[in-house]
Write a structure and sequence with these properties.
Strand content: 15-25%
Largest sheet: 7 strands, mixed
Mean pLDDT: 77
């Protein structure tokens, strides 16, 4: 800046400097843009290396809808049960179904699978649960079903520990159980109605009713809840009984009491009042500061009669989803939810935490889970002979604790401990730390905030959480081609019989990890140096790297000494130097007795650097540090040159310190050394787990497995996990310090990946079988080749992720001397300006000549709908904004990033991939004229045969008036009926059909989905008449605002109008998000305006920690469309699917909360909050800026069946549903309800404005009945790799969506 503000520089020279700098930036930025977007961009221009390199694929897209764990279905689980009636003492007799002869066992072998979730609901992990609730208390308040729930929890926890009875009284209704190791207490509170009640006197039949005091809390539990951290309340079945209702100590009515002069109230009255009073008691409690969970009603399943009239529950399998329902159960559930939502509002105001454990749907589907006749001996005299109310143990009720743990973990993630314990399994007590083959366990050993992310078409994926998948191309070297393999890692040399352990690769969640490319790596480190610091596992990784690079070049040993602990290798062709520095403890270390070669006791100086490596790192560009296994040995700890204690040392007068003490201190000191001495990229590689089974390393333990574990099939041992935990904590602390100094520290969290590879160690094959070795079975180091090669796949990717910043900084620094020279020599500035201008213009012109569509293709606007497209030729109508990752799953994936468009064999860009709506070769075609050049042959089925009457556009017999015999009909309620005249265009006659909606092109075998029309109740809906439409809009303009579903309707309209005229593209810019088409013969302008959220929105910032979210300014207009609507006569607005994503909400320029974000100190707002506000704001914008006919088109439902969009969900139906055959998803229905409410409110306001009309196109019900109308698997080639194989969101063209334009024209005619 001093250059430009110097008074000594003439003004003309200042101007030259400014111009030169500006042109320089215009030159550099476009060159850097693709590199910043894709760090691997320039490397991709090179030929691949000798081996097949696996590239990033879009095979997995992020889920953006929050995962609703309470909506789903039951799926088989052969691993269950996790306890039995012999291992758990807490099972009551009448729930001990197996004891009394139940013949089937399948009812215990099911688990709950939520819909729309990326991962299944984890099976209950008793270790994780107990560690999470350590030092806390939990209360179960309710009836015998609540106690049933608690007994299930005790049985599940019995796998780890049995509790002791710590009850303060002898009543079985008020027990206290304490888990002493964890200081965790469970307490049941018997309260059948939740409010104060008195039971009928035993044997008194003339007044055998309960007295319920509906406005008085049951103090037996409300007085105690201040002592508890978690309170789970539930109630229901006892409200079926006869009761007298009191309020203000006065009888107000009763249920089934048959008492004179007392009003008979429904059960629902008392039920609602009881919950309202219970919630109020919690809200008013001054001592309760915990979390209240409402566990919703658990239904009974009596069939064939009531409980006392022979009713029974004999089914042996779960219901299918929506197979049946019970009106009373649904009503009770509705009351609970309504009262909960009412109380939740007040709870938020008071800072209390109310949560909903909404298990009703799951339990309703389990009629097979009750004891029935098997809750007692056959001859027993019991009041409830067939028990279809309680639940067998083990059985479906165990799932309530799966839900409970998931909710507690979610609560924990919102708290202060989230940054430490998020996604980290908790170590078991020492007597429970064996490897187990089980499905109950903690999530992967990673911390989400620390994970390095891969940008997969702008989707951020989790690099360190995933699974191992087969890779037949590996290995990429062997023990004959690589000289660097040490004997004890040369598994094949010593007779290992299996080779499968080499043929796997790591598949992260949400993306593919590229296989290591040695050419790319060596180019990236050209002229640089890299060091590895640690123990023999660190050296193991270096040997893997040397072997992988051996495919390109062998290095030269340039070590300054023969000490094998400190080696230096140089790759001459690349001037790259690789250092290996031995430091198993990372800090200064000496042998306790240097004169004794057998001495295994080491002295660690925990606050002093190991200068053998810390003195060298200032010469390095990359540093990879790791350690761990050596800390299991006996050591003496020194601090300030004084003995602080020891570990496993048995020295007199010396404090015994735990393993973790020394490791934490040593790691902290080593990271401080990096902070003070290193300026490059530092990477902490997390702990590498061991896999001894059958005993420890020195007592016959071995690792003989030949395959990886499946995800979550094993858990880490406590000590290993603790080391990993320490690494994460120390990494976070150091990372914060380094950020302040502009230094870079990253975490390579490979622990979870390697935990799943028990097959990758040498085992007994690291030596000759007769050899005398100290470690006979090596289950610590890794075979070469083997799983450890993946560490270098990850290392390369992490380096690539860091690369752009380095390049930008370097090039900027290199420009500074140039600008100084410009100050002294103005002529040089002129010359340089001309050269830079030429360098800018010529490549741009060359690109345009080579690819005229380039300006469209590289548009950076937000132009995609909710469904991803991974076609090689990505249609620009589906071109994307950033993909985002959601903590939770949604059927609406984020849009993909632009795929590069390829030329066709003819050298031209295929028109469907050039612009949002491909332009026909000749814009001047008049009505009814069709050029042969428009015909396109389909690679599979060919074009749809055109209807016989499609050429002359006339009104068919189906196009009747909407008013049928003067009867006003309901346009939006009806059914679909056959229509043999359709379709009215096909994929050969319409140029506007996008690839992924061109269902017939990619081999859809059925055509029936095109041959239906909508028949409203009370009338017929005329089929769209393009002549009539164009005459009606002559001289006018129309705009469509919304997401890709809105654009789907525009494409249908363009196709319908193509029978009369093709439009001309008159868009003012190449931005494909905002297209303008002109029908010149009619002077009709059609606008397409992209706004998936309808309000002002900012895209994620990749440099920001919040980059996974979109920021919505709920009270600000999206001026990209609101500024244009005053020029329109018709406006159609719609939205919905994008609101399933994680979002941050702003109001009055301030953060007001977020949705699915789990951000600290940020209010978690419900899904519908943002949508309501956004729609309200957009309708207000219409009120203020528009004077024509505005139409709000209601939500377009999706139809995934058999799973969510990313878990095999499909829409394979070939017929419409019949009326009332299906119901909408809860979240879809909520959006529709919001639309109706906001429409009504806005309509009132708009009636007051002259010339402004707002109408509702309520197409939701009609489209709900059309599961057959989506592309499904036929939106792409069947062999094509796409991120979402089955599109059950958008609509085929031609198809049901054409009906929207039938309705649109009718609504316009009605207004005319």
């Amino acid at each position: 800046m001093e250059l430009l503000h110097s008074a000594a520089i003439p003004s003309k020279q200042k101007l030259l400097i400014v111009v030169t700098i500006s042109i320089s930036l215009f030159t550099i930025i476009p060159l850097l843009y693709p590199f910043v977007e894709d760090p691997n961009f320039f490397f991709k221009q090179q030929h691949p290396s000798q081996t097949s390199i696996v590239k990033l694929q879009d095979s997995v897209a992020a889920t953006h809808k929050s995962c609703d764990i309470f909506s789903g279905e039951w799926v088989p689980n052969p691993e269950a049960p996790y306890y039995t009636n012999t291992t758990c003492w807490a099972i009551h007799e009448h729930q001990n179904c197996m004891r009394f002869g139940r013949p089937d066992t399948d009812f215990i072998k099911w688990k709950w699978k939520p819909h729309g979730c990326e991962d299944d609901l984890p099976v209950f992990d008793p270790l994780r649960f107990l560690e999470t609730v350590r030092g806390k208390t939990m209360a179960f308040v309710g009836d015998s079903v609540s106690r049933n729930h608690m007994q299930s929890l005790i049985c599940l926890l019995s796998q780890v520990e049995y509790p002791v009875d710590a009850s303060v009284n002898t009543s079985d209704y008020f027990k206290r159980w304490t888990y002493e190791t964890y200081n965790f207490t469970i307490a049941p509170f018997w309260s059948t109605h939740l409010v104060k009640s008195t039971e009928p006197e035993p044997g008194k039949t003339e007044h055998s009713v309960f007295d319920l005091y509906l406005d008085e809390a049951d103090e037996r539990w409300t007085a105690e809840i201040g002592d508890f951290d978690y309170v789970i309340i539930s109630s229901g079945h006892w409200h079926y009984r006869p009761s007298v209702y009191y309020e203000n100590n006065t009888i107000i009515g009763c249920r089934y009491c048959q008492l004179p002069n007392i009003s008979d109230f429904s059960m629902f009255y008392g039920y609602r009042k009881a919950f309202r009073t219970a919630f109020k008691a919690i809200l008013d409690s001054e001592t309760f500061e915990g979390v209240m969970y409402l566990r919703t009603f658990a239904p009974s399943h009596f069939e064939g009669g009531l409980w006392n009239e022979g009713g029974n529950c004999l089914r042996k399998g779960p219901y299918q989803r929506n197979e049946t329902q019970d009106d009373v159960t649904m009503k009770l559930h509705k009351i609970q939810v309504e009262e909960f939502e009412r109380a939740e509002v007040e709870a938020k105001r008071k800072g209390k935490r109310f949560r909903l454990l909404d298990t009703t749907q799951a339990m309703w589907l389990r009629p097979d889970g009750h004891p029935s006749r098997y809750g007692h001996l056959p001859e027993a005299n019991v009041s409830l002979y067939n028990d279809c109310v309680h639940w067998c143990l083990p059985g479906p009720i165990d799932n309530l604790n799966d839900f409970l743990l998931a909710m507690i973990k979610r609560e924990e993630e919102k708290g202060l401990l989230a940054q430490v314990r998020k996604m980290i399994p908790i170590p078991a007590p020492l007597n429970h730390t064996r490897h187990r083959k089980s499905s109950y366990h903690s999530p992967p050993v990673t911390t989400s905030t620390l994970r390095t992310q891969i940008r997969d078409d702008e989707q951020r994926c989790d690099l360190f959480n995933g699974e191992w998948i087969p890779n037949e191309e590996s290995p990429y070297y062997n023990n004959a081609t690589c000289w660097a393999i040490q004997e004890h890692q040369n598994c094949m040399k010593f007779g290992r019989p299996d080779t499968g352990f080499m043929r796997w690769r790591w598949k992260p969640d949400g993306c593919d990890l590229p296989i290591f490319d040695p050419n790319e790596f060596l180019e990236m480190v050209r002229g640089k140096s890299m060091g590895f610091v640690g123990d023999s596992i660190s050296r193991n990784q270096v040997q893997s790297l040397l072997c992988l690079l051996s495919r390109v070049e062998y290095p030269e040993d340039i070590s300054s000494s023969p000490d094998t602990a400190f080696k230096v290798w140089n790759y001459k062709s690349y001037n790259f130097t690789l250092h290996v520095m031995w430091s198993p403890y990372l800090v200064k270390t000496t042998k306790a007795d240097p004169t004794d070669p057998e001495c295994n006791l080491f002295s660690l100086y925990l606050d002093e650097y190991d200068t053998k490596w810390t003195s060298q790192i200032n010469q390095l560009d990359y540093l990879v540090i790791s350690s761990g296994h050596w800390f299991y040995r006996p050591v003496i700890f020194y601090e300030n040159e004084t003995i602080a204690g020891c570990q496993y040392c048995s020295l007199p007068n010396t404090t015994q310190l735990p393993l973790y003490y020394g490791y934490k201190k040593a790691l902290r000191t080593s990271l401080r050394a990096i902070l003070e001495n290193f300026k490059g990229l530092a990477i902490l590689r997390s702990f590498s787990p061991q896999h001894f089974e059958g005993g420890p390393w020195d007592k016959g333990g071995d690792c003989v497995r030949t395959r990886p574990y499946r995800r979550n099939e094993t858990i880490p041992e406590g000590a290993d996990l603790k080391i990993h935990d320490i690494q994460l904590e120390e990494f976070r602390a150091a990372e914060e310090e380094m950020k302040k100094k502009g230094l870079r520290l990253r975490l390579m969290d490979t622990t979870q990946a390697m935990l799943l590879r028990p097959d990758g160690h040498p085992g007994r094959y690291g030596h000759i079988q007769t050899a005398e070795v100290s470690l006979r079975n090596d289950c610590i180091h890794w075979c070469l080749p083997g799983p450890i090669d993946t560490w270098n796949d990850i290392l390369l990717h992490m380096m690539k992720t860091e690369k752009p910043c380095t390049i930008v900084l370097k090039q900027t620094m290199e420009l500074l001397p140039l600008f100084a020279a410009i100050q002294r020599t103005p002529r040089v500035a002129l010359t340089l300006s001309f050269v830079l201008f030429t360098l800018t213009i010529v490549p741009a012109l060359y690109s345009l000549l080579a690819n005229p569509a380039l300006p469209v293709l590289i548009s950076s606007s937000e132009t995609d709908g909710p469904f991803p497209s991974d076609h090689v030729h990505l249609s620009p109508l589906n071109s994307p904004s950033f993909r985002t990752l959601s903590p939770v799953n949604s059927p609406i994936p984020a849009p993909p990033y632009h795929t590069r468009h390829q030329k066709s064999s003819s050298g031209k860009i295929p028109s469907p991939n050039i612009s949002p709506i491909p332009v026909p070769p000749d814009h001047t075609l008049s009505r009814h004229q069709h050029s042969s050049s428009h015909q396109s042959s389909s690679p599979v089925n060919g074009p749809i045969p055109a209807p016989l009457n499609s050429s002359p556009v006339t009104t068919s017999t189906l196009r009747t008036q909407i008013r049928d015999d003067e009867q006003r009909c309901d346009l939006f309620k009806g059914e679909w009926i056959p229509n043999e005249e359709s379709p009215y265009y096909n994929n050969a006659t319409c140029w506007a059909i996008q690839e992924h909606q061109n269902c017939m092109k990619f081999g859809r075998p059925d055509t029936g989905f095109m041959r239906w029309r909508w028949k409203p109740d009370g009338c017929d809906l005329p089929i769209f008449d393009p002549n009539e439409f164009l005459e009606m809009v002559r001289g006018k303009s129309m705009g469509f605002v919304g997401d890709s579903i809105s654009r789907n309707q525009v494409q249908s309209l363009l196709c319908l109008l193509s029978r009369v005229e093709y439009p001309e593209d008159i868009s003012s810019s190449p931005d494909i998000a905002f297209k303008v088409w002109n029908y010149t013969s009619y002077n009709f302008i059609l606008h397409v305006m992209w706004s998936p959220y309808l309000v002002k929105t900012t895209k994620p910032d990749p440099t920001d920690a919040k980059s996974n979210f979109f920021s919505l300014y709920l009270d600000q207009y999206d001026t990209k469309w609101t500024s244009q609507i005053n020029q329109l006569d018709y406006l159609i607005i719609s939205s919905g699917h994008w609101f399933y994503r994680p979002l941050i909400f702003y109001e009055n320029e301030k953060l007001s909360g977020c949705q699915y974000c789990s951000l600290p100190n940020t209010t978690e707002l419900p899904f519908h909050y943002g949508y309501t506000k956004a729609l309200r704001t957009s309708l207000r914008a219409i009120l203020e800026n528009f004077t024509g006919l505005a139409i709000l088109r209601s939500f377009s439902p999706q139809h995934f069946e058999g799973g969510p969009w990313n878990k095999g969900g499909d829409c394979a139906r070939t017929q419409p549903y019949r009326r009332n055959e299906t119901i909408p998803e809860v979240s879809d229905l909520k959006i529709h309800d919001i639309q109706l409410e906001e429409f009504r409110a806005a309509e009132e306001g708009m009636k007051k404005k002259m010339g402004l009309r707002l109408r509702l196109m309520n197409t939701t019900q009609a489209m709900l009945l059309r599961p057959d109308g989506h592309p499904g698997r036929y939106g792409h080639l069947q062999t094509e790799e796409v991120s979402s194989r089955n599109d059950c969101i958008h609509w085929c063209l031609p198809g049901p969506i054409d009906t929207w334009n039938d309705i649109l024209l009718q609504m316009m005619k009605t207004e005319k």
